[in-house]
Each structure stands twice: as structure tokens, then as C-alpha cells.
Amino acid sequence: MGDNPMLKFVGTRQDYPDKRAAQDRAHDFGEISRSFVIDKAEEQASRCSQCGVPYCSTHCPLHNHIPDWLRLTAEGRLREAYELSNATSTMPEICGRICPQDRLCEGNCVIEFSGHGAVTIGSVEKFITDTAWKEGWVEPIVPGKPSGQSVAVIGAGPAGLTAAEYLRVAGHEVHVYDRHDRPGGLLTYGIPGFKLEKDVVMRRIDRLKEGSIVFHQNFEVGRDATLEDLRRKHGAVLIATGVYKARDIKAPGVGAPGVVKALDYLTASNRASFGDDVPEHRDGSLLAKDKHVVVIGGGDTAMDCVRTAIRQGAKSVKCLYRRDRENMPGSQREVQNAEEEGVEFVWLSAPVAFEGTEQVSGVKAIRMRLGQPDASGRRSPEPDPGSEFTLPADLVVQALGFEPEDLPRLFGAEDLSVTRWGTVRVDHKTMMTSLDGVFAAGDIVRGASLVVWGIRDGRDVTEHMHRYLKAKAAAGVKEKEAA
Fold it and tell me: What is the E.C. number (predicted)?
């Protein structure tokens, strides 16, 4: 292959950054994987086959220029690699940490299909941007020529923050309204530090603030202002609240003390990591220490909960899931990490009741079997009669996913149209809602999804909002001229 730095996948094996030993990492909330050193990053990037149809890019929601920045990395041109990576993503180092690459880019890598093991794209992406931060290559936000118009962004999660950045670069004044005391949404309070250390998120937030984006924290639309108030104050509004309403289990005893929601549990843990005083840790209601913990669910949120419980010093941690390992929605890498750290998985099992009145004491469950595929193509779980069993539990965490809150009622906006699932209805050509000048993006439109899709939606909605604001400004000028 001569001097070609690429196509080394035959002679160079797939390799990931070293993981800390399970017995060490299970006692703290630091990230479990070390970063590549430069030689290893270049080596792994050189495995890329530079294929004619890059399935890694087409299966990335952001359509990142993956083969191109892999080649630049292999050639030692890291700053150029970073700039190309940053061209399509506002948070490449965050996606490199938390994207399910095994289901997206790496899972569709051509050399993975050939049996040589995928290029470790996520780890290289993380390395590139971490290096850029370290070397000072991450440039401040430079606002464009002032447009004279302001925008309200409701929600400081991935979709809202991405749109805020691009709208500021376009020259608009941007105000972000968020219900929490720190921006970031689930990046800050939902995802544990062992997957995403919080200083990685906060440095992104600081960059946005330095770019003169105004954050209004502890601000609830409907309490501190109605949606109509924000419409009158700003030229356009973006709803990017995400979906926060937990899906509840319908079973006897579900209201017993000690049966808690996943997001409440994870938020308390992340607050403690920031050094906040957490009353629910002081009274033990959201703390796993010295308890038998059962987490119900099979997605990434459930994996976050079981691994958090291990770090909090639980006596035992079990994950109860109604399907088998092959049919779970969460990342297989996360399951492996959890097993290494001491989590026990109870596959093909579902809760039927919770025991205990003053405090939960156990989960009564039933074995399941997989029947015919449902509308999504996944085999539907069915109870196996007579197979009931009980797991001891002092803390039960419900991690069954999230649904939209009732935004029309919460926002005092009865004219805001929603779908039968409660997500905000938009015109998909413009991403505008039923209200003029009010747009929506992210999970509140598509339902609970991935961070990378939130970033994609935030990027896409910016173009529509910018076009709307330009047309609005032009119409205003015509009115003045006519007058």
C-alpha cells in the first residue's frame, strides 16, 4: 500500500482505549475509559478503508464526515480533523462519549461486515475534540451581524443548545429558558459522570454564555411566563423541552415508599456529584447504599441506574427486563460494563406487584416468553403462567422510558397542537408548530430518542427559524415604507 496511511485494517487489529478495572471504577463516578494517546488514535484511524459509500456517515444522524477526519487523524493533522468534525456537530466530544456507536456509525462500518472489527470511531472523535480543548483550538462563538431580532429557546438540552449556538452565530439575540438551575438538560442531570463527566458539559455551556447567549435558569414556562408572553417578547420561539414524564408501572404496590422514578434517582446522584446538598441522599430515599436494588427496564436509562447503584454501595443490584438480551433496546456495551461491575440481569421477567407497605420489601415478578413479532418487528413478551417468583428489594427504580408532558396545559397554550402521543405537532417542511413563529425540535417532536438526534434537529430547525425571521424583518421594512 506504499505511503498510503489508510487501509491498515488487515494488519492492525481493532482496539479501544483501556477501561479502568471494574473493581476500581465501581467506586467513583469518573469516566471508565481512558482517552487514546496520539499514536494509538492515529493507528486506529488508519484502519479506515475509505470506502466509496461511507455507511458510517450515512447512518450517523448528523452525517459527520467520518472517513475524512479519520484520514486527517491518521496523517497527524489533528487540528484539521477537529475543524471538520466540528463543522457538522456542536458537541463532537459528547457524542464520542455517549452515542451508541455500536448501533450507528461503528455498527455500519464496512470493515465490521468483513470480519475485521469496526474502526473505533467514537473513541477517535472523543480524542480529537478533547485534544482541541486542551490545545486551545476550540474558538469562541462569534456572533454574526446583529439582526435586530431575538429568539426564545425553551429547554437547555442538546436540541435547544445547538439551535441557540447557530442562531447566535446568525446574529440573533438568543435567550434560553430552562426549568433547572444548570443548563444541559439530561446531559447535566440525566447521564451519570462515568459516561459523561460534568466538566465536559459545563465547558460547552460556558462557551455559549461567553458568546452572549442569555440563560434564564429555574424558569418554568406556564409559571414564570406563558408561551404567549414569550411570543410577544421575541421574534420567534423554539420549544425544545425534551420528554420528562416517566412511564409508570401499573401494578399493585407501585406507590409504596422506595419505588422511585429513574430520572429522580439519577438527578439526585448527579446533583451530589456537583457537590449540592441533596436531602434525598441525607434521608436515604434516593440512595442505594446498603440496599438491595432492583431496576426495571432494559434501555440505556436502566443501565445508568444499575451502574449508579453499584457506585453508591448497594448490597445487590438486579436488572429486571421482560425480553432477552438480544432484544433489549439498550447498548450491549453498557450491559457488558454493568456485568463487569457486578450487576445481575434477570432476563425474560416482568413485575406483577410490589411487596411492603411502610417501605418496599420485594418485587413479585413472573417469567416471560417471547411470542410473535409486534408492529415494530420485535417479538412480544408473554407471561409464562405459574412462574411467579420474588426478588428482595429495599429500592426499586422504574426505568421504562419517558413521555411528553401536557405542554398545552403547562404552557397556558391551548392552541398548541399535539399528536395523539402528546408530542408537539409540526409541519415537517418548516418545523413550525400550529402557532405562527413557534417552532419545535428534539424529543418533544420525535419522542424519547438519542442526544445525536437532538443535535441534528437543533441544527435543522435553525435554518427554518432564520428564514422565518428574515422574512418577518423584510415584511416589517415594507410596512414602514408603505406607511
Answer: 1.4.1.13, 1.4.1.14
